[in-house]
Each structure stands twice: as C-alpha cells, then as structure tokens.
Amino acid sequence: KKQGELEFYDGLLSEFNSFKDVYRNIMAHGLRSYTELEATNVFNSVSSFMQRLVMKVSEPPKPS
After folding, report:
1. H helix runs in 20-63, sequence order
2. Helix-then-strand count for the chain, H and E
3. 57: helix, coil or strand?
4. pLDDT digits over 12-23, tens only?
5. What pLDDT digit, counting tens, does each position of 14-55 carry?
6. Is the pTM of this model over 0.85?
7. Minimal CA–CA distance to 12: which of 45, 40, 61?
8. What backbone phi and psi angles, to 5 degrees, belong to 9?
9. CA angle 24, 50, 8 (to 5 degrees)
10. Which one, 7, 30, 49, 56, has least CB within 10 Å?
C-alpha cells in the first residue's frame, strides 16, 4: 500500500514540477506569452491534475 501511495504522489509531484518549470516560471517572469490554444492546453492539464489530486486527498483513510 505504501509503495502505491509513494508512486501516486511521486507522479503528481513530477507533473506539478513540469507545470511550474514549463509554464509558471516563464509566464510569471514575463519571459513569453502564450496563444489561446497553449493557454487552453495548460488549463486542461492543470484541471486534470487537480481532479486526480482531490479524488485521492478526499478519500477517507483506510484502516491498516
């Protein structure tokens, strides 16, 4: 069980870092702007990420 949890959160962390490095850092520092299509793709990716996260976090803890 613990291994599965670690894999789940490791995957989420990798995805989060990808958003941060590719989109947030560049945009926050004004290094470039994005087209509407690129912005929509980012929005959809972050939305999917958040939906997976909230489903996992909102699960009640299972007894050991």
Report:
1. 25-28, 36-57
2. 3, 0
3. helix
4. 888 888 878 777
5. 888 887 877 777 777 777 888 899 889 888 888 988 998 888
6. no
7. 45
8. -70, -30
9. 105
10. 30
